[in-house]
Amino acid sequence: MPARKPPTSPQAATRCAPFLFKQNRAPPSVEDTLKLLKHSADSKDLKLGKVIHAHLIITTESSRNENVVLTNSLVNLYAKCNQISIARQLFDNMRQRNVVSYSSLMTWYLHNGFLLETLKLFKNMVSGDNLEPNEYIFSIVLSSCSRSGRGAEGRQCHGYVFKSGLVFCKYVRNALVELYTKCLDVEMAKRLLDLLPGYDVFEYNSVLNGLIENECFRGGVEVLGKMVSGSVRWDSVTYVNAFGLSASLKDLKLGLQVHSQMLKSDIEPDVFINSAMISMYGKCGKFSNAKKVFEGLETRNVVLWTAMVAACFQNEYFEEALNLFCGMEYEAIRPNEFTFAVMLNSAAGLSALRHGDLLHAHIEKSGFKEHLIVGNALINMYAKGGNIEAANKVFSDMRYRDIITWNAMICGYSHHGLGREALTLFQNMLAAEERPNHVTFVGVLSACGHLGLVQEGFYYLNHLMKQIGIVPGLEHYTCIVGLLSKAGLLDEAEKFMRSTPVKWDVVAWHTLLNASRVHQNYGFGRRIAEYILHMDPNDVGTYILLSNMYAKEKRWDGVSKIRKLMKVRKVKKEPGSSWTEIRNTTHVFISGDSNHPESSQIYEKVRELSAKIKPLGYVPDVAAVLHDVEDEQKEDYLNHHSEKLAIAYALMETPPTAPILVIKNLRMCDDCHSAVKLISKLTKRDIIVRDTNRFHRFQDGCCSCTDYW
């Protein structure tokens, strides 16, 4: 019988493994054993690998002489099978090692995040065993430096690479590019592209992706330019990066150029390219293009649906974003945590509490409740929807929290006028060792403003923020203006604005102007208003506040002058409108409008409420009516305000104990504010009104804003 030939493939070797190790047979050659070990490692067949290892241990040949190649193969086997302790023991017991011995172990440490261990092995390899690293070792070490943020060690390794002459090897070049992009040395990363020839699309993609991740967007544009001038053929990853770069810069022109180039190429857009394209058009404000791309797709997965929902949200098409949820259900697409987060933020944009509740129910059923991004969006939705108690419950139930979680709750409390709760939560945040950021201090300083805590506010601005390393911005200084204004320190607030080296916007000056109205310092207010109109002659809010001041002083000549000025400058006041949601239907009311089917009953209800609250102390603020007519007619004008109509209708159509939520497009006027306080007392209802400034929560004759807004 002819002798059996050794196997020629790993698969055949596996089948023959029992035969090879039978007694009275010639032992397998080293070459056959290496093939078996390689197959065991590649297929992660630990059982077979251990059989081979056991055979090697009992052979007398193995005990006399150590075969470095065989031991390297065993180290590789155990490393790939995640038996790193055995691999390391074999490695440590080797009397002689080569570059391959180190390579297997270092690769495992790199891929499993033990980056410092990789660098220790490299040091031992060079200093202890006096081995010369090859290009693979250098790429592993450079990658370890970049992923662990060890820029200094990475630069030292770069010097070693340069001396060794391996700087032109592809693996090394890629690792060097990754090092400098991740360690924020963008200029060096770009220099590598210029100095080292032969870069292909994969290396350009690596640089481009690193620049985008580190928000070095202008550098990304330069790299794209190099790719075009160097005639580098773009692949799918390039287009995803290019669209992402355009979106980050909100550069529609660049995005259109990238889209045009893609259409000319033979690239077939996949889900990643299409979602990047939709996102780009959404962030660049070209919603129609995003919609066109989305509707032109034959198959759409959850990534594409989420990109489209996000585009709606970014362009404030909140209702359309919520409607897309029905489309997803129709196509049997299951939303993920990102979809739910964007949907909830869209509901927050509309203050659509009913939609938010339905989404919350879906989230509970779908099992996404524990996702951090969803919890944060739920807090935001409930806070902006007027249900701060529900927001607090979500916050309290969250197992994990990040800075966004704390900020959403602190700012939510501040927006509702609950300054004490906001500051208490801030102290809890510090106790939990969560580091505040600039958004946190906007909420904290706003809370100080609600409570009139001037000294505390300046402590947070001048000391705590400086101690943490946060540079105050315009929004923080505006909060200080609001803080001083509420305390009645109008001159100090103006002096603060004049002396602080920051470019103030109209919002900050509006804060001061509104304070002069509240504190009835009309002369001061007129001077500030003139300054604002000099900055922005089309600011309609300033004209209205100025008119109100003249009306309060019964200076009808001043009111007439402002009206004429508005007419000359073609500035039109937006009509006041309010809306409330009752039984899944949103009812919109416009001041003085009678288009609602039940308008006659609504006006009758307003007159009835007005009559009932007068004995409780309500005096119609006829001075605020910008018409020189009789007081009785002025009172009738006041009854036509949109928030009164919305509240009256809600009282007619909802159960006696149900809270009422009304959203208004303008600032709530003084008369409506006084009236609604007493209506809440009369009807024993919680009435929440969200205007352009804040939430007003009316309970038993009081408002959460403490009559300052």
Automatic annotation (TrEMBL):
Protein name: DYW domain-containing protein
Family: Belongs to the PPR family. PCMP-H subfamily.
GO MF entry, a single one: zinc ion binding
PPR repeat extents: 67-101, 301-335, 402-436
Tagged with keyword Repeat: yes
All residue ranges annotated as the DYW domain in the record: 617-709
Key words, A-Z: Repeat
GO terms for biological process, alphabetical: RNA modification
